[in-house]
Write a structure and sequence with these properties.
The complex is a heterodimer of chains A (about 350) and B (about 550). Chain A is mainly α. Helices cover about 75% and strands about 0% of the residues of chain A. In chain B, strand 7, helix 8 and strand 8 form a beta-alpha-beta unit. In chain B, helix 4 packs across helix 5. Classes of the chains: A mainly alpha (about 350), B alpha/beta (about 550).
């Protein structure tokens, strides 16, 4: 079997990447199909909904023809797929702009928020877990446990409101919870859509300070609420590894503690990767309350608007984009997962 | 040499260590002299490992030095200042532990792991740049007898054999250039041939570098071959300290004499069975098991066309080093693995391609005793439930009946009835083995595969397990396949022996014939690798450096 042999001779990293990237195509197809069918499952005839109760049967039939609803499901799906591939997700009757443009406007806001939030969430979660395992039984350990226990139970909007109340209203340290940047400042030219990064590209320090400052409270909110989950997961993995014979052996060999921690953490990575990717995917929609409180104007708010307005095309577009994002995040996590653990056979 | 009046490198003065209750080490006085190889023998639970950990200043959690001192070159180790203390572990005293695979970081390359230790101790000569550390790590790997060290340095621990991993651990111990090595059952669980190679290498390096070695073991053969002096340990005390040669001739203590007698015992060979015309209960033809491994175009030929048969009531021993395919062959036999080629006939029926549903009723007649009972027994269930579980699969019976059967099984393996109510974790290794055996016998099988039933057991416990199996065989008329590398147990249990090497059977025949006049070189090498306790027998094979 020459193909098989050729495959087995390739470096491990290449094999991991090839498999994962090849899998994205059918997975994306499945996601598109589900997004399409989801809307089909909604009750009611769109033509009748749009034309209203007084429409004649002929006009409805005509309109159905115009919408392509008279064709069979698979032809409709093929048309939909073709449109999606051409970047056409339809037009929203409420913003009267192409949905793809609406999404492209709002996606960077949410992505910027949740990427920073995930970085801090994972960083803080790991830090707390590692310190509490290394100093087992200390006051810090007990505090960390209490936090891990409570964090899952705190609602995010409540944390957000507390932070706004104390840090903005009472103390005046934090900037106002009104959007991503001071309205008096001109936003930097759009390159990545991330205001902090674009401001740095433009060399606009004032814009950077404003954008970064506005990020503090929402990022802090998400971090406080979600770091507990990372802490708990990391704690259970890391403490098991901390008790493993190889850690005791490194210590017996006189390897410095700092390096032992690093090695043990390296061994704990796979579940941390899983939980981080899960949180990142989950926040895309779940950050909506935080977005609302801070008038962030992100994807979550757009999706909620679409639901309230029964704007199905916009909703469909959101579902598609969100699923694609989660798919990419999970694929990256899978790739990292296999890279960090040499024992996984590929 | 050991009579030299030089000051000891390590001295223990009345060392007493406790974990809250009774002391685990009780007033130990011991001197380790320069360039001396000192054996510490004793059975499991004697406190040998705690002794090594105490000297290293790394007691298990909860352990505390309650009295006495540990002196390094005359200075108490708790009086070392911070930089000296940092140098102490690994730099002056290094530990070589048991079960090397668990001692290595599973996600780091072994060369880098040696490098970490080199860096920690600023070896070589304080240079910590990547290149010199790597070169030194490779040199160390070569020194402990690893072939092609440049390539092996890039391997992960799971890609190494047990013997190879043990060599890496030794290299890590040597990396800090210590004066004292503590080898804590360093070769436990390794094949006899590999054990001999690893020990040989370890002792050679230590002599060369002028190290003092504390060789902790439960194998008197090892002590007899490599040590200058020894201490016998029991219940946290040293019952006897003596020169090895004097000890072998005249052990002073009663317990020492028992140990020595148990180690010297050469069981009578199992007499050949009277041949009869009954057809074999198990008949295997050209059994082959190849594993496809990703990342390599060649399959692993774990079992490569072996044929043998076992008559009713007969015991066939399958001996060979680890990696020879013994266990894989046993698992294929019970259809725990689906062999890639060959036929397996059980009791006249070809079971090779039998559907699981048709094969299932046959399973009660063929059972397996797994190698590591602690892994094979569910740690959360009580012994009673573990034994009742297979019974429930066989036929419906009432709770009372089942209770009676469990009691019978426990009695059959000489375990106390009270054991039924505890969990495997609370049992000793020997008791766990017994529960494993009882579990396999629960369905009254006619054929049992014993996978390494005597490895990693103390010598006296081993003898008890062998007696047990022997008794069970004759009382139940069991046919057995006995997979092992412990030749002593083969002598006393097997009617016939098959020698396996690299997936093939090299020779098979009556036990006596194989032991007394082996035809193959490999068999002779295997037999020679046993470390005999008495001087008149041959020296251990210092066979090459291939691991």
């Amino acid at each position: 079997m020459p193909i098989r042999e050729f495959w087995r001779r390739q470096p491990r990293l290449l094999r991991i990447l090839a498999v994962r990237l090849a899998l994205i195509v059918p997975q994306m197809f499945g996601v598109t199909l589900v997004a399409f069918l989801l809307i089909r499952l909604l009750p009611g005839d769109p033509a009748r909904l749009i034309l209203g109760n007084f429409a004649t049967d002929e006009s409805i039939a005509l309109y159905r023809q115009k919408l392509g609803l008279d064709k069979d499901v698979w032809t409709q799906f093929a048309i939909y797929l073709d449109n999606v591939l051409h970047g056409d997700l339809g037009t929203s009757p409420f913003t009267s702009k192409p949905i793809i443009e609406d999404l492209a406007d709002r996606a960077p806001a949410t992505l910027e928020l949740i990427l920073y939030a995930v970085i801090f969430t994972v960083g803080l979660g790991i830090l707390i877990a590692v310190v509490s395992v290394v100093r087992r039984g200390s006051a810090f350990d007990w505090g960390a446990r209490a936090y891990g226990f409570a964090a899952g139970a705190i609602p995010d909007f409540w944390v957000a409101l507390l932070l706004v109340f104390f840090l903005y209203t009472v103390l005046g340290w934090a900037p106002a919870p009104f959007g991503r940047m001071d309205l008096m400042l001109a936003p930097p030219p759009r390159i990545t859509g991330f205001l902090t990064i674009d401001a740095l590209f433009a060399g606009d320090w004032e814009a950077f300070r404003s954008a970064a400052g506005r990020l503090i409270l929402p990022v802090a909110t998400i971090t406080i609420v979600n770091a507990g989950a990372v802490t708990k997961m990391t704690h259970s993995v890391f403490s098991e590894i901390w008790d493993a014979p190889f850690v005791a052996h490194m210590r017996a060999c006189g390897v410095p503690e700092r390096q032992i921690i690093r090695a043990a953490l390296r061994n704990s990575l796979p579940p941390i990767i899983s939980v981080s990717s899960f949180i990142l995917g989950f926040l895309l929609g779940a950050a909506v309350l935080v977005e609302t409180i801070f008038s962030w104007g992100g994807l979550g708010q757009y999706a909620v608007q679409a639901v309230i307005n029964s704007d199905y095309a916009a909703l469909q577009g959101f579902v598609l984009v969100a699923s694609a994002f989660i798919l990419i995040v999970y694929s990256i996590a899978d790739i990292l997962y296999e890279i960090v653990d040499p024992r996984i056979r590929t | 040499m050991s009579a030299s009046p030089e000051a000891p490198v390590i001295a223990l003065e009345g060392l007493t260590v406790g974990f809250g209750g009774a002391p685990v080490l009780d007033g130990i006085d011991l001197e380790l002299r320069p360039r001396e190889i000192f054996g510490v023998v004793g059975e499991t639970g004697a406190g040998k490992s705690v002794l090594a950990r105490a000297i290293l200043g790394q007691l298990p959690p909860g352990g505390r030095i309650e009295a006495g001192r540990i002196l390094l070159e005359g200075r108490p180790i708790d009086a070392l200042d911070a930089p000296q203390a940092a140098r102490y572990r690994g730099g002056r005293v290094a530990l070589i532990g048991t079960n090397a695979k668990a001692l290595l970081d599973p996600v780091a390359r072994v060369g880098d792991q040696i490098g970490r230790v080199l860096r920690a101790h600023g070896k070589p000569d304080g240079r910590t740049d990547r290149r010199s550390v790597r070169d030194r790590a490779v040199a160390l790997m070569r020194e402990v007898g690893i072939n092609d060290p440049e390539r092996r340095a890039r391997a992960y621990p799971h890609e190494l054999s047990g013997g190879m991993a043990q060599r890496i651990v030794i290299a890590m111990a040597l990396a800090g250039e210590p004066e004292v090595l503590l080898a804590d059952d360093a070769t436990l669980g390794l094949d006899a041939t590999v054990q001999a190679q690893v020990l040989e290498r370890l002792v050679e390096r230590s002599r060369e570098r002028g190290l003092s070695v504390l060789l902790i073991t439960h194998d008197l053969g090892i002590v007899r071959h490599y040590c200058d002096r020894l201490a016998v340990m029991r219940g946290g005390r040293l019952v006897e300290v003596s020169e090895v040669s004097r000890f072998m001739a005249h052990p002073a203590d009663g317990y020492s004499r028992d140990l020595l007698a148990a180690a010297r015992a050469r069981p009578a060979l199992q007499p050949p069975r009277k041949s009869d015309d009954r057809p074999p209960i198990v008949d295997v033809r050209d059994l082959t098991m190849h594993f496809q491994v990703p990342g390599s175009p060649q399959p692993i030929r774990a079992v490569d066309g072996i044929s043998f048969s076992v008559a009713p009531g007969e015991t066939l021993a399958l001996v060979g080093e680890s990696g020879s395919g013994k266990t894989t062959a046993g698992q294929c036999l019970l259809r725990l693995l689906d062999n890639t080629d060959g036929r397996i006939v059980f009791d006249g029926r070809d079971i090779t391609d039998m559907k699981e549903a048709a094969f299932r009723p046959l399973r009660r007649h063929m059972q397996m005793v797994f190698q590591e009972p602690y892994v094979a027994l569910n740690p959360r269930r009580r012994v009673r439930d573990l034994l009742a579980e297979p019974l429930a699969l066989v036929e419906p019976m009432t709770g009372a009946e089942r209770g009676r059967r469990v009691a019978e099984l426990l009695a059959a393996v000489n375990l106390d009835a009270a054991v039924a109510d505890i969990r495997p974790g609370e049992l000793t290794a020997g008791e766990q083995k017994r529960v494993g055996i009882a579990r396999a016998l629960a369905t009254k099988p006619r054929f049992v595969v014993f996978d390494e039933p005597t490895t990693a057991l103390d010598i006296r416990v081993r003898a008890q397990i062998i007696d047990l199996i022997r008794g069970l065989q004759s009382s139940m008329n069991l046919a057995a396949l006995f997979i092992t590398h412990d030749l002593n147990s083969v002598r006393s249990l097997a009617h016939r022996v098959a020698v396996m090497h690299l997936g093939k059977i090299l020779e098979q025949g009556e036990t006596r014939a194989i032991f007394e006049s082996p035809r193959e070189d490999y068999t002779r090498k295997l037999l020679a690798a046993e470390l005999p306790i008495d001087a008149e027998t041959s020296e251990p094979a210092s066979a090459g450096s291939a691991a």
